[in-house]
Amino acid sequence: MAPFTVRLPLEDGQTDEKKNRNVVESDLAVVCDKTKLDKNGYSGAPTLIVEIVSKSSAKRDNLLKRNKYEKAGVSEYWIVTPETESIMSYGLHEQGNYGEPDMYILGEDEEIKSKVFTDLVIKLKDIFEVWGGPVIITNNGRTQLVIISEAQFEEYENLKARLDLYEKLAEAEAEANAGFEGHRLADVAKELMADLD
Asked: What is the pLDDT of residues 42-51, one digit of tens each?
């Protein structure tokens, strides 16, 4: 679940807890050492990191984060590109570098296999054919990134637009009926908000 803060180790193997100079927020991180989890995220190198590339994050994910993850010793790194329905998969070699990535493309490849978790095999169509896009939901100050199907995305957008309209109408009604209790539109807006959760 994003954002998930990862404090990567520095060259000496230590994480910089005071200055947090080597901090990233990955889209997905698989961690195997629960002792490194804390209220601020994870302190160390996750076993597998997945980044979902957008136009605004392409350089950061393909170059900057890739280099940081390699130096920190992240065993496996996937770069998922929904636009091209492809995944680049890097595996850390014994020499401590990634080398050339394996490329998986929907239509050419049926599945992606993890280099580290040998039982982890995911069908590419399960990743890309349901892609509707990311939806960022904020609830009680907590932000979540959710990937949903196109139909769910359209339903979410319609529901959100209706909610915005009802909230505006409820505000106008409240102003017009200052002191009047039982705002029906406000109740409808609350019900719609509950549907978003």
From this structure: 888 999 999 8
Q: Are 2 and 28 in contact (CB under 8 A)?
A: yes
Q: Which residue has the tokens 């978790």?
A: 117
Q: In terms of Cα–Cα distance, which of 103, 110, 102 is closest to 84?
A: 103
Q: What are phi and psi of 134, to 5 degrees?
A: -80, 145
Query: Hey, which residues does 105 pair with through a beta bridge?
Result: 86
Structure tokens given for 90: 């890097």
Residue 164, SS3 per DSSP: helix
Q: How does pLDDT run across 48-69, given as a tens digit for each residue?
A: 999 888 878 888 888 888 999 9
One DSSP character per residue, 51-83 reads: EE--TTTHHIIIIIHHHHHHHHT-SEEEEEETT
